[in-house]
Specification:
- Two copies of one chain form a homodimer.
- Chain A has about 575 residues and is an alpha+beta fold.
- Chain A has three domains: about 90 residues, Beta Barrel (OB fold (Dihydrolipoamide Acetyltransferase, E2P)); about 260 residues, 2-Layer Sandwich (BirA Bifunctional Protein, domain 2); about 120 residues, GAD-like domain (Gyrase A, domain 2).
- In chain A, the strands form five sheets. An eight-stranded mixed sheet of chain A has the order 6-9-10-22-21-20-17-11, sandwiched between helices.
- In chain A, helix 3 crosses helix 14 and helix 9 crosses helix 11.
- The longest helix of chain A has 23 residues.
- The N and C termini of chain A lie far apart (about 60 Å).
- In chain A, about 45% of the residues are buried.
- At the A-B interface, helix 2, helix 3, strand 6, strand 7 and strand 8 of A face helix 2, helix 3, strand 6, strand 7 and strand 8 of B.
- Strand 23 of chain A pairs antiparallel with strand 23 of chain B.
Amino acid sequence: MNEKFERTNRCGDLRLADVGKSVIVIGWVQKRRNLGSLVFIDLRDRWGIVQVVVKPEDVELPDIRNEYIIQVFGKISKKDVPNKNLATGDIEIVADKVVLINTSEQPPIVISDDTDASEDIRLKYRYLDLRRQSMVNRFLTRAKITKCAHDYFSSNDFVNVETPYLSPSTPEGARDYLVPSRLKKGSFYALPQSPQLFKQMLMVAGFDRYYQVARCFRDEDLRADRQPDFTQIDVEMSFMNEDEILAMAEGFLKKVFKEVVDFDVQLPLRHMEYDDAVNFYGSDKPDTRFGMKLVDLKDILDKTEFGAWKDSKFIKAIKIEGIAEETSRKKQDEYNLLANKFGMKFYACFKVENDTLEGSLVKFMNPEQIKNVIQAMDAKNGDVIFVGSGNDKHNVCFGVGALRSMMAKKLNLIKPNTFDLLWVVHFPLFEKSEETGEIVAVHHPFTRPCDEDLSKLRTDPFNVYAYAYDIVINGYEAGGGSLRIYDQKVQQEIFEILGLTPERIQKKFGWFVDALKFGTPPHGGLAFGLDRLTMILSGTDNIRDVIAFPKNLAGVCPVTNAPYPVDEDQLKVLGIDIIKEK
Amino acid sequence: MNEKFERTNRCGDLRLADVGKSVIVIGWVQKRRNLGSLVFIDLRDRWGIVQVVVKPEDVELPDIRNEYIIQVFGKISKKDVPNKNLATGDIEIVADKVVLINTSEQPPIVISDDTDASEDIRLKYRYLDLRRQSMVNRFLTRAKITKCAHDYFSSNDFVNVETPYLSPSTPEGARDYLVPSRLKKGSFYALPQSPQLFKQMLMVAGFDRYYQVARCFRDEDLRADRQPDFTQIDVEMSFMNEDEILAMAEGFLKKVFKEVVDFDVQLPLRHMEYDDAVNFYGSDKPDTRFGMKLVDLKDILDKTEFGAWKDSKFIKAIKIEGIAEETSRKKQDEYNLLANKFGMKFYACFKVENDTLEGSLVKFMNPEQIKNVIQAMDAKNGDVIFVGSGNDKHNVCFGVGALRSMMAKKLNLIKPNTFDLLWVVHFPLFEKSEETGEIVAVHHPFTRPCDEDLSKLRTDPFNVYAYAYDIVINGYEAGGGSLRIYDQKVQQEIFEILGLTPERIQKKFGWFVDALKFGTPPHGGLAFGLDRLTMILSGTDNIRDVIAFPKNLAGVCPVTNAPYPVDEDQLKVLGIDIIKEK
């Protein structure tokens, strides 16, 4: 029989109450200080760090270096001067015996929460980076959220069902990752962008309540907050209306926030209409931890002499208190880069000084208009007012909304250590495609229009709203979903409005449309972004911090270097070839 | 606000205790019998079927057909004659009101446990097939096993970590599914065959205990018991020896069997050495619910005059009781097809009659030898003895073992309604590759050799055993794993024995070998096959019965028809091309 590696305790668990106990611990050597007559070792395991004291004159000490693994037999002793930086800082282990279990090469990064290693190096040596307590904690948080999902949804009678990863390619939406088929050469599976249609089929199958912690794949260009694959807590339920579905989802969030960060979420959550989110926060995921709501100045400003305003269909403004002094011309230019991004030329900027407005456009306004603006904005001397204008509502609102968020961060206006959860509900059903100008579904063509808008489907489609909702936490979209159409006539009408001929429907998702004909229950659901939830609950803005082995911005796994070229034989057997660069 | 679909109860939940209650249920119409003054409806939901009685003269009844969805308001009444076939059979719902929720086309299969539809049709209309109670139950079983895994391993301090699905391709073992990279054209990810190396890196990272319910992918030719992807309950732990790891795994199995099928597994489980499994059961996954152990007749039969025996290095036999009369020449020919599959010419067959052996080869034996065979086999008149022989131990043992299993099934010798769990331990570390004749690792090159065999590594490698183990249930391999090498010197020696040069190592898994240098803890683990466990616990031999949307033998999803050809543009953007058939 092979050896036993006895442990009585975890390094990070030891406390004052353990003083006097004989213990055996195993861990990695975090640090070693040799004072001659005493050697101090910081010993680390997943649970934390404990200090070990060895008297070389009494105890045989093997040659140990950083990241060596040792087993320590000893007795817990109270420290004269507690180390406030360690949870175990009240005690230390006085060693009787030290056994070397494994050696280590000199690690290329400092394994400590205040490491100075670049993210590139940390990702390359991820197995060392993950030894840092701050990283471990994020994965413990992630695992706790997942466990909450399993507990909550199974106890509410949801069935955990695994849907296929080798799926059909969907010819719209984001780009699919393809998987060539060897048995059917020239054909391809796609990795699923979500289990959407499969979970709806499970409702057709009468499963009533389904959930899955599912990996999803999108071959889009990568950004700091995006990975090629991500994980959804995916749920779907039958015979429930919008309120009931949101209440079910809220119960999960309440449990997660309580169990993971001991935060009490007050239920029911606020519902904000999509239109209000856009009009008042310039966002479909408003951060309501601070005010600075958008104010509509259209009625006031389109009567001024300034041509750009007169020609603008939409004029929105925000007020920022007490920053008049520091708002230089140069800073305004900086902000205007953001305006450009949203298709606006600039943000008009006014300072409120001496009970009037200051700024280059004031000359186009009469005293009445100036007074009205100050009043509408409820502005005081020292405040600054930014005004965005243009003919595209989305661009104007989202442009001013982006400035609102930027200023709030810059000026530290966001209430710290709190979580602000709300639903944004009733998204539009249709939008104009930016590329083609055609009418397209905002979510997918199976999203159910609001009953009261059904009569407008053909006459005024862009004013039709859907039973579609997002859960927004601290300005992040942490999940979303919708009710689905179960009425065949409505479904047919939507297809016609989207210009989908029977042939195209059959080709795209005929198998799914067929399924809906056999007694489809009213159903709906949503998906929570597990990565996003973990980021919010573990306080990081970097999605790579919550994925054990993430890809870098080039889509490469820095540990393994995947993807890489494969043998030609491997491709031949799949019936594919690499296109040679000319 | 959209409509509410009120339910007070589930169809399948109603019992005698509910008599007199007013209820609202929703379900699918399973069956409808119109007796004129009374209409009987069998109404079905995920929880079961309940009978509804409608008096058309009192209650307005919409036109309803099979698989229509209706909501029924009514009162529970005791049935005069209980229906023993239904769990709800003591009662019926006398309807006050029936509301039609959705219609259905005529379903192409009979939705009932005794459906006569072919598997092809059932798979094509999987969303209808899954409405059958026997199918639903399998997915409830599967979900329960998964939930047990999450509960058991989290409560034992295992961290659930998700490892990458876009992985490096591993140049040996089964064939990988490849995923072309768009950002790095000409390069490919592979879908992981298992999270093996990533979970070991998590041990290097100090996670101490890891688990994951992980999808795994192998592009092998499909068989009835094989799917392109399958699910593992994957675990790994540090600082534990073989006994401790097996005990940890047993705790999980005990919980699963108790919670899912209320079966008490007696712990600790039996350990059977791999060599004993092969010698006595002719299998590395012996079914020990019945006897018929293999007997070694080499010492007796190689002294006979029969050339094939004299030339055979291995001779193994089984005895089957009381089948002499029915063992015709024709039947023997049938069995010999099985012998051929294992590289043997035939099974020699003797009937025991009149206290001696009967059979064509008896003429080569003297009375002493005949007597010895009867004695060694402990045979009685009416028994039949089958003898396999040859020079390849594996072929002879597994060939006779396969006959043993076949005869046991044929003759119904297997104790029903029981579960027989055991560990097969200490698999060989190396084997000869069937294709190349080279020495290869039985599991993978990181499997740890038994301490007592270390000295034989170079001198007698095929007699080196590993700390490798499989969990065997009712003759199925339900999981397996091993301890991993953590000693760099041993690892180096294994690489050398396998003929891996430093260059090849670097190319194949250099990143992993590098990781092992930085303080690797002693570690090991295993993976349970979730599909297999579900099959065992829900009593099916067909893996497609436990996968919601399985592939057929051509690797095609019968519902969606995936994989299929994609637009040329989609391939171009990935830098690949389809090789045209000549």
